[in-house]
Amino acid sequence: MNVLLTFTGFHDPYFLGLVDQDEQPGPILSLLSVRPFDHIFLFSTPNTSKITASTKDAISGLHPRTTIHVFDLNLDDPTNYRDILKGLRKHLPNITEDFPAAKFFIAVASGTPQMHASWLLLTAAGEIPAHILHVRPPKFVTKDCPLVSELNLSARGFPSVRFEPEPANTGEDGGDAYAACGQLGIVGEHPAMQRALEIGAMLAPSDAPVLIFGETGTGKELFACFIHRLSGRPREIFVPVNCAAMPEELVESLLFGHKKGAFTGAITDQIGKFDAADKGTLFLDELGELPPPAQAKLLRVLQDGVVEPVGQSKSHKVNVRILAATNRDLRRLVRQGKFREDLFYRLNVGEIKLPPLRERRSDIPKLALSTLDRLNSSLRHPKRLTAEALSRLQSNDWPGNVRDLENAIERSVRLCRRDVLNADDILITEPITYADPLEALPTPYEGFSMDGFLGSARKQLILRALEATKGNQSQAARLLGITPQAVHKFLNESKK
Hints:
The protein is an alpha/beta fold. Helices cover about 40% and strands about 15% of the residues.
């Protein structure tokens, strides 16, 4: 699927020839005479609204199979770079996510020079994986210079965009959020990610604990660093702890410390992670893996702000900000009796959900170029990604999220002999799948109800069958191997 993005200009849809004053096709119609597109997005300003309407009608008459979309940009000054970029950024994420497998083209013929430059900047920065099309005026068309030519921004002749971190702008509020994102390398232009960053920045100055939810590889620790940077606490006192990597018998000792002789092997006093993070931030990753005894002691620290080392009856105060993260459903763990309910509510003062990469595809090109820029700093010959390569990256679901994307880019860059990587050079590993659906069944636990689980599974299967058959009960029953009466009974009971 080919998608064209373009501004409209005063030479669209037609203009008068300089010599004979005959009406001639403008840049957009000229482009469409040699290149077909499935979708065309026309970006309009208040000064070109009538021109845009005429251009849309002209395209519809000449190319009835092309779908045309119009976006109005409220630009008082069509030469203001900041306003142009802001207007385009408002719409580009939705466009790229609605057409994840599309091949995007941008025409830089209509509009102001500042609009053309903005297109180039956005494409070079990876905010949209697109091919730049230059439409020549008819008088400049020759055998060697065709009407339409494509600019390859990955070619050596074009400068690469580098993602240099910006210095933090520290103030009374703990620092500037934008600068923190730049310094940490956080890419998040998508509205869902922007919302998460906004919440994180609002919660940062307080001492309230924060729970960060997100799938594996979504950047939970990086996000915790972002909150810590804006908290006003000493930047160097950020202590990450992977709860899943701690041996169960040593969890309390590692978190709270121990006294000499507290247990076999305790030959000296040892401070715990809480003491190490005093006056700073303690980040508890994979919180859902914390065993119940440690959960109880963690609750006391949160309630009273005191730590009691293993083997010592005397406790002492600590000043620690708690940030925690998990890829598990803590609410489900609470219902299953695997996580303390009181601890959940104590920690869940602030809740932030990081979207998976497949739900913010518009960020993928810029993430890819940022990763590439980091890799290029260690390579003898810098590499580049074509628009086709960026498009392939953007269309993948990335079950391992940002970490998965970064690994794929590094793998592809190090194994490709060419300086410019195309779509075929992108090496994406096969996602982990369950060949046997029984492997995905839960492990029974104390209080587990088999009837309840089977009932829930039956409900989900019936709903999925109805969805697949667009509500046709007979077809759904046939897919499931049950009677239509059983499906009908299920629907009636669901309404009660």
